[in-house]
């Protein structure tokens, strides 16, 4: 949480120090959002964070099977709960997931922004989906909600 606050502050500092560079060709909000997103991406590209993530990825055990949870499961989860589940993902996996799902970037664009290969971007998205599916199923067992799961 402290990292997020620090990155937001850094982003706003860049916005205020570079406000002279705003050309009025698009929306101010879009320009400002781009600066904040790029600030966060720069942080993720840092070498110390990459090393930390690489150690975490090696520690994750191989997945036994792929499960897919239908939308019935997502209908029973509150938005806040889903956001909390996404926030618990490893940093790089969460970043790739957010860029792909929420920001609409493709794997080639994600790879270029994060300085990773397209294949690595695909892997992180796959990993995020698997981890979220497991969390949803675990939540299902704890809340006794019926989800429909199927092999893919």
Automatic annotation (TrEMBL):
Q: Which domain of life is it from?
A: Bacteria
The chain positions of domain RNA polymerase sigma factor 70 region 4 type read 81-130
SUPFAM superfamilies, alphabetized: Sigma2 domain of RNA polymerase sigma factors (SSF88946), Sigma3 and sigma4 domains of RNA polymerase sigma factors (SSF88659)
Domain RNA polymerase sigma-70 region residues, every copy: 2-47
Task: Cite the entry's keywords alphabetically.
Answer: Sigma factor, Transcription, Transcription regulation
Pfam families per UniProt: Sigma70_r2 (PF04542), Sigma70_r4_2 (PF08281)
InterPro entries under this entry? Answer: RNA_pol_sigma-70-like, RNA_pol_sigma-70_dom, RNA_pol_sigma70_r2, RNA_pol_sigma70_r4_t2, RNA_pol_sigma_r2, RNA_pol_sigma_r3/r4-like, WH-like_DNA-bd_sf
NCBIfam families documented for this protein? sigma70-ECF (TIGR02937)
Q: Which PANTHER family match?
A: RNA POLYMERASE ECF-TYPE SIGMA FACTO, RNA POLYMERASE SIGMA-70 FACTOR ECF SUBFAMILY
The record's similarity note reads: Belongs to the sigma-70 factor family. ECF subfamily.
Q: What is this protein called?
A: RNA polymerase sigma-70 factor, ECF subfamily
Provenance organism: Nemorincola caseinilytica
Its lineage reads:
Bacteria, Pseudomonadati, Bacteroidota, Chitinophagia, Chitinophagales
């Amino acid at each position: 949480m402290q990292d997020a606050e620090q990155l937001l502050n850094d982003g706003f500092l860049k916005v205020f120090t570079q406000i002279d560079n705003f050309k009025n060709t698009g929306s101010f909000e879009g320009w400002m959002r781009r600066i904040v997103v790029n600030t966060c991406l720069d942080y993720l590209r840092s070498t110390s964070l990459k090393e930390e993530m690489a150690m975490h990825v090696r520690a994750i055990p191989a997945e036994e099977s792929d499960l897919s949870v239908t939308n019935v499961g997502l209908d029973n989860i509150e938005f806040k709960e889903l956001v909390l589940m996404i926030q618990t993902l490893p940093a790089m996996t969460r970043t790739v997931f957010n860029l792909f799902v929420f920001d609409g970037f493709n794997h080639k664009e994600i790879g270029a922004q994060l300085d990773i290969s397209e294949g690595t971007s695909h892997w992180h998205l796959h990993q995020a989906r698997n981890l979220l599916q497991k969390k949803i199923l675990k939540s299902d067992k704890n809340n006794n909600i019926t989800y429909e799961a199927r092999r893919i």
